[in-house]
Amino acid sequence: MSETRDLVLHGYWRSGTSYRTRIALNLKNVEYRQVPRDLRTGDQRSDDFRALNPQGLVPALVAGTTALTQSSAILEWLEETYPDPPLLPESADDRAIVRAMAMTVACDIHPLNNLRVLQALTQDMGVDDAGKSRWIARWIADGFAALEVSIRQHGGEYAFGDTLTLADCHLVPQVYSARRFNVSLDAYPALCAAATRAERVPEVAAAHPDRQPDADRPG
What we know:
Layout: E1 7-11, H1 16-27, E2 33-36, H2 47-50, E3 60-63, E4 66-69, H3 71-81, H4 92-108, H5 110-113, H6 115-124, H7 129-154, H8 166-180, H9 189-199, H10 202-205
Parallel strand pairs: 1-2
Antiparallel strand pairs: 1-3, 3-4
Helix pairs in contact: 1-3, 1-8, 4-7, 4-8, 7-9, 8-9
């Protein structure tokens, strides 16, 4: 039986890790409250937030008296705590494939392109904007090339089969990031088709950065 706890998500509207966490929460139909942490102002390094996550990174999901960190671990916790609807397939083999697809994003793409890495490139190493763009595109291309093969092998309506999984929770925000940084996606038609279909699901659409309470507003 799923347990009931007040959930509070500390995140940032444009953060890919916060985005994937919102998708999973929405797909699980779990009620939660958001506390914005503006990464541009360094709010994630404040004392009150570091009390929740000593690493000073978003997201943090507070469940009752427990603070959970690392978005992929949070998604696994959601899967165990709120098992219906499932975001992992039934068989061990299929679950491993879905996790591998998710980890391609979580371990091999996103960490190399997150804000603190990009700031280190420009501020500490003197990389110019063109060099930063090449860096971003290089790591997205490496990961997306592998995911394109996996989705062609295992995909259906979505990244794996015809049901949304943890793979889609990770894929959709990474595609958003690629578009934001003007990375060409022409070489990944299966990946883009799966992401587009997932984006149209109401629960996924509601997690989009532009629809968050702390999103930048035009004008």
